[in-house]
Design a protein that fits this description.
single chain; alpha/beta; binds D-malate; binds manganese (II) ion
């Protein structure tokens, strides 16, 4: 199974268009150690020919152009694509807007929870994906689902499971208190298994906490790609970017006693990779003490174009 990180940044990318904070401005000025990143997405294939996208970011067009595996087959018909399916882990702008780039009448399948499908179904702009050609398939939670699209069996199955998190920002309902109306299925993690080899990995780009059920699920995993949004809960506040904490946004931090690095310490996961990294996260600086701390804890900070073979 091949895994490609198409985009390693969180919403906004790195640099973010309107951000003049020290991290984004360093990336914009191409200072050494500050590699630019597009928004959160992976591509996965069991045969190197047919691919599924895990999330579809607003930067998808650029990501496809930079990834030869996702180009049309030069020997194929005048219009073709190796992208046969997309699986969505939440309704965030950074994870769904790329679907719009996949218009032009190409058949494929979109898999998502009932909650995220309802959001897409409620917004008619997604109907640019011709419903006769683009199937919308509900991923039942805790049920392995074989992936296919455009008549092709991808040789992969995914199991979707609810994780602690928050409903997408634009769907928050302030009248519902601290949960903002979040329901099961608003934020899911995925276990992706290659049906031929039995190898599997977890992809959890948004997660508010590693609770007991999640820890049990991840114990002993070969590979986990996990929410790396923030290094510290209040970093966006302390950098003067905006008044929100990670906790308020539904994202666990990397550091601290309640952070992901500590939570994974006892989980015996062989390869731990951070994805969905926010432009405020000092670990995006290759030469930062935060990056060193992550790496000494056995984690890898992903980058656009990173390839993993399982
Ligand atoms: C998130 O991951 O919290 C969202 O992508 C934030 C946003 O919608 O900008
Ligand atoms: Mn996001």
């Amino acid at each position: 199974m091949l895994i490609k990180v198409l985009g390693s940044a969180a919403g906004g990318g790195f640099p973010q268009w309107n951000c003049n904070g020290r991290m984004s401005s360093s990336a914009r000025l191409r200072k050494p150690g500050f590699r630019a990143r597009t928004q959160s997405s992976l591509a996965v294939s069991s045969n190197g020919r047919d691919w599924v996208l895990l999330n579809a970011s607003p930067d998808l067009r650029q990501q496809i152009n930079e990834t030869a595996e996702l180009w049309p087959d030069a020997e194929g018909p005048s219009r073709n694509s190796p992208i046969k399916a997309a699986v969505l882990t939440n309704g965030d702008v950074d994870h769904v807007i790329g679907l719009i780039n996949l218009r032009e009448g190409q058949p494929f399948s979109v898999f998502a929870s009932d909650r995220v499908l309802a959001t897409i179904n409620a917004n008619s702009i997604f109907d640019v994906l011709n419903p006769e050609k683009v199937d919308r398939i509900e991923l039942a939670l805790d049920t392995p689902t074989p992936l296919s699209g455009a008549g092709v069996d991808l040789g992969l199955k995914v199991e979707a499971f609810d994780v602690p998190g928050k409903v997408a920002l634009y769907l928050e309902d302030a009248s519902k208190g601290d949960s903002f109306g979040t329901e099961k299925g608003d934020t899911i993690g995925l276990k992706v298994t290659d049906q031929a080899t039995g190898k599997s990995f977890f992809y959890i780009p948004g997660c508010a906490a590693v609770d007991g059920p999640l820890a049990t699920r991840l114990k002993g995993a070969e590979l986990v790609l996990f929410d790396g949004t923030l290094y510290t809960d209040d970093e966006m506040v302390s950098q003067g970017l905006m008044p929100k904490t990670g906790h308020r946004m539904g994202h666990i931090s990397m550091s601290g006693p309640d952070g992901s690095i500590a939570a994974f310490d006892s989980l015996d996961v062989a390869r731990k990779v951070f994805v969905h990294i926010n432009n405020s996260n000092p670990a995006l600086n290759d030469n930062s003490p935060e990056r060193k701390a992550i790496e000494s804890a056995g984690w890898v900070v992903s980058y656009d174009g990173m390839e993993i073979s399982l």
